[in-house]
Write a structure and sequence with these properties.
By secondary structure, the protein is an alpha/beta fold. Helices cover about 45% and strands about 15% of the residues.
């Protein structure tokens, strides 16, 4: 194995998450991933059996995330790389037309989910004296466009949360905000429809992005980075 390294991936069942799982397993990292779709998790378990671990976890539920982190720790899994990838997009609309429940859903997943994962995994990483936390941001966490205000708000929040977290970490750890770039995913198609097809898909993106992620270390702490490609 690649130095016996372990990666934890939220949102592992679709899009970027699924592609990253494939690349990390090819590189002989141990992968622990989660998602909300039980059928997709079962498929990952069949495709990538032990030592890899895949669980149905609701990142908006602190107790669910805590139980997952504790179960992994009991199996000796503390991440070298923690990828907070789980996120959702709002249906495009002017901000005043966004339903309150949809706005709250984005807050709960895109920000709350990252908080819950950090809360339960990072203390174990600190105890181990190592690890990099990558919180997935967006170009819309550093700029804006019309009709995606809720998503922009959550990704701007991730930039600030990550910068503050980086200032709190001890030596040996790092937290970075990563803009993955423009990728043809279901999320992008909500905004751009068929226009998303002009951009690389998750598989192509992951070929350069995963080696980049593997190379992150303590010197990256506090940086806002862009994935290659």
């Amino acid at each position: 194995m690649a130095g016996g390294k372990t990666v934890v991936v939220t949102g592992a069942t679709r899009g970027l998450g699924r592609a990253m799982v494939a690349r990390f397993t090819e590189a002989e990292w141990t992968v622990a991933g989660c998602g909300r779709d039980a059928a997709a998790i079962d498929e990952l378990r069949r495709q990538y059996p032990g030592p890899h671990r895949f669980e149905v976890v609701d990142v908006t539920n602190d107790a669910s995330v805590g139980a997952w982190a504790a179960a992994l720790a009991e199996q000796g899994i503390v991440p070298d790389l923690l990828l907070n990838n789980a996120a959702v997009m709002n249906q495009t609309a002017p901000l005043w037309e966004v339903p309150p429940e949809e706005f709250q859903r984005l807050l709960d997943i895109n920000i709350g989910g990252v908080f819950h994962v950090v809360r339960h995994f990072v203390p174990r990483m600190i105890a181990a004296g190592r690890g990099v936390i990558v919180n997935f941001s967006s170009g819309w966490g550093r700029s804006t466009s019309p009709e995606v205000a809720p998503y922009c708000a959550t990704k701007y929040a991730i930039e600030g949360l990550t910068s503050a977290l980086a200032s709190e970490l001890p030596k040996g750890l790092a937290a970075v905000a990563l803009n993955p770039g423009i990728i043809d995913t279901d999320m992008l198609r909500l905004c751009w429809s068929d226009g998303a097809s002009a951009y690389p898909g998750p598989e192509e993106w992951s070929q350069a992005a995963v080696p980049f992620l593997m190379g992150l270390g303590p010197r990256s702490n506090g940086r806002s980075l862009d994935a290659p490609g």
